[in-house]
Amino acid sequence: MNDARREALSAVEEALGYAFENIKLLDQALTHRSFSGGKGGDPRVDNERLEFLGDAALNLIISDLLTRMFPEDSEGLLSRKRAACVNELALARLATHFNLGHALLLGKGEETTGGRTKTSLLANTMEAVIAAIYLDGGYQAAYDFVARCFQPALEGQRDDLLFEDYKSSIQEWCQARFRCTPKYLTVSESGPDHDRTYVVHLKIQDKFVSEGQGKSRKEAEKDAARKALHILDELF
Fold first, then answer.
1. What residues are annotated to the active site?
2. How far apart are CA 86 and CA 108, in angstroms?
3. pLDDT 10s digits, 75-126
4. Which CATH class is domain 166-235?
5. How distant, in Å, are the alpha carbons of 101, 146, 150, 154, 173 from that of 86?
6. Looking at domain 3-155, which CATH architecture does it have?
7. Contact (Cβ atoms closer than 8 angstroms) between residue 122 and residue 92
8. Arithmetic mean of pLDDT, 159-178
């Protein structure tokens, strides 16, 4: 591991607020399979196995947090709140907050196709980092880290799952890639005044990307943004 890599990992440690005893675990968590495969290295050094472990650890910790914080909530409501925390978009936004994309080791193909900002890749990396903390410091270290990241949002969370901030995410995506903002166009309204249905088209650079529906314009725009994020993530 060269000095530049150590410096990059130290910056991630500082952002995470966690100092690793075994820095190689963090290095592995920030190594995409395209890099290890492209270099002809041992495929076990990439972060896929850590991603698998991190997903399980995160679900357990969030479940533990939720049952402690909301003792009166039903199983169904707890499941919805957990899903809001561990969904791909929420994890990718957390990875962006810690600037994990900057420290990722990527193969040439992923590098040229914008892998550092790809939602699915960032979400997987965040899970791998959680696993690295778990392996390095044990369950309590992982629990403390996840609680620090998620508990403030959980305490203010409403039943409509505030983590799903799709409109802000698509706007950030557009500005980063195209230096523009998405446009929402209401194309139809139907139904009686007390039960309206709105249909909205989302356009980027005047090109149609997705269609959303909802009982208000805001809901329809959010639906269109959610669909657009998944479409663009696949394309880019």
1. 55, 127
2. 29
3. 877 887 787 778 888 888 889 889 898 899 888 888 887 778 888 889 999 9
4. alpha beta
5. 18, 11, 10, 12, 20
6. Orthogonal Bundle (1.10)
7. yes
8. 66
Residue 31: its pLDDT value, please?
A: 92
C-alpha 127/C-alpha 36 separation (Å) is: 19
Residue indicated by tokens 């269609």: 211
User: Is residue 195 classed as helix, strand or coil in its secondary structure?
Assistant: helix
Q: Hey, what are 40's tokens?
A: 């002809």
Q: Are the C-beta atoms of residues 95 and 123 closer than 8 Å to each other?
A: yes
Please give the share of the chain, as a percent, with pLDDT higher than 70. Answer: 91
Sequence ranges of the domains in the chain: 3-155, 166-235
Lowest-pLDDT range of 40-54, 83-97, 162-176: 162-176
Residues 6+ apart with CB under 8 A from 137: 18, 21
Which of these, 113, 108, 127, lies nearest to 52 by C-alpha position? Answer: 127
Rounded to the nearest integer, the mean pLDDT of the chain is: 85
Task: Work out whether the CA dihedral 111, 116, 120, 121 comes out positive or negative.
Answer: positive
pTM, 2 dp: 0.67
Take residue 35 and report the two structure tokens written for it: 């890099």
